[in-house]
């Protein structure tokens, strides 16, 4: 664990966070966005904008005929350049402190707290690559912890992000440009799962269903906005290309494909499905 004096030496360290740490103590982990990375984004975006402007000027001056492809290329470079500049500006000066009770998010002189007990929703967006679903269970097969390992994107422009929503409606986005982003997402899923799972399981036992965005867990299986699949028909669940997919044993094509960002608390959904299709554990049951 770093000392406070060491933290104050970090590039871009906000003085306000020193006061916070003096009151709350040293955090378990600190996540931030490198100023060097942001500078590179700004420079790359500016170069793309200059290249787009020069290309457009060249097309205009030379009066090039049939220049549709060249114009499209210039527009694409301009859009990419503006996007890079916008991302760099929107993520500049972001710091996240991890404490046992939750996260503190600091940016633009605004401090937002996310107590684990107050988080009601976790969403993952822009996820194109992730590892197999991970979880831990007790001796009775009851899930204790669950998370989806999220890989950090190699793209400077497009990458995954995590959205947290509090009970009072407060929300914030945590982008993949944060250092150790995969660790942050894992910790957030583990901590929120411990709080959300008992509530969702109790709701299922009372009502026979749990709605998690565009997927609903029912007694017989999983329901989407258009159809339902029984537990014994589910072959596997995949997250690929930003989509949540359930493979049907009876068909080659996936039974359901839903954008991952439209699923609320996907780690809770995966735990329900893992419990429902596992031959070693009792399927979720609901009281009538």
Topology:
Elements: H1 4-8, H2 15-24, E1 29-32, H3 35-62, H4 68-91, E2 95-99, E3 102-107, E4 110-115, E5 119-125, E6 134-137, E7 143-147, E8 161-166, E9 171-175, H5 181-207, E10 209-212, E11 215-218, E12 221-223, E13 228-230, E14 234-240, E15 243-248, E16 254-259, H6 266-277
Antiparallel strand pairs: 1-2, 2-3, 3-4, 5-8, 6-7, 8-9, 10-11, 11-12, 12-13, 14-15, 15-16
- How would you sum up the major sheet? 4 strands, antiparallel
Unreliable residue stretches: 280-288
Number of strands: 16
The topology string of helices and strands comes to: HHEHHEEEEEEEEHEEEEEEEH
- Category by helix and strand content: alpha+beta
Measured distance between first and last alpha carbons: 51 Å
Fill in the keyword field for this structure.
288 residues; alpha+beta; 16 strands; disordered C terminus
Concise overview:
This protein has 288 residues and is of the alpha+beta class. 37% of the residues lie in helices and 28% in strands.
Molecular structure report:
By secondary structure, the chain is α+β, with helices and mostly antiparallel strands. 37% of the residues lie in helices and 28% in strands. A hairpin with a 2-residue loop joins strand 3 (102-107) and strand 4. The protein starts with a helix and ends in an 11-residue tail after the last helix. The model is unreliable at 280-288 (pLDDT under 50).
